[in-house]
Design brief:
72% of the residues lie in helices and 0% in strands. It is mostly helical and 110 residues long. Helix 1 packs across helix 3 and helix 2 packs across helix 3.
């Protein structure tokens, strides 16, 4: 039994370099064989690149950037929660009666 391979994903630089090889005069079949991809995929990429230029193929890169920002956001939220709890703990320690028990206002404000 053969294992089914998942859908392969290619980054923007890979797609653009494949298209530029064809634009430089190489045959699509040769480029596809060399890169280990189907020839039709190169034609799809070439069409998108001709239509959108350098703005083509933003999908995957944009998603990874969003994932990175989400992880960073979650990390900052956790840091914020920790700092809030630390402030509460320190405030309770400072404002509890044992701290003020021997406190002499007149000595502090002389």
């Amino acid at each position: 039994m053969e294992e089914k391979q998942g859908k392969r994903r290619f980054d923007k630089a890979f797609k653009i370099s494949a298209v530029k090889m064809i634009e430089a005069g190489q045959k699509a079949a040769e480029v596809a064989r060399g890169l280990g991809i189907h020839e039709n995929l190169i034609y799809v990429w070439k069409k998108k690149y001709a239509k959108d230029g350098e703005k083509a193929f933003v999908g995957k890169g944009n998603l990874t950037e969003m994932a990175k920002l989400r992880r960073e956001n979650e990390s900052l939220r956790l840091d914020n929660e920790i700092l809030k709890k630390a402030i509460q703990t320190v405030s309770q320690l400072i404002l509890e009666p044992p701290f003020f028990k021997n406190w002499n206002q007149e000595a502090v404000f002389q």
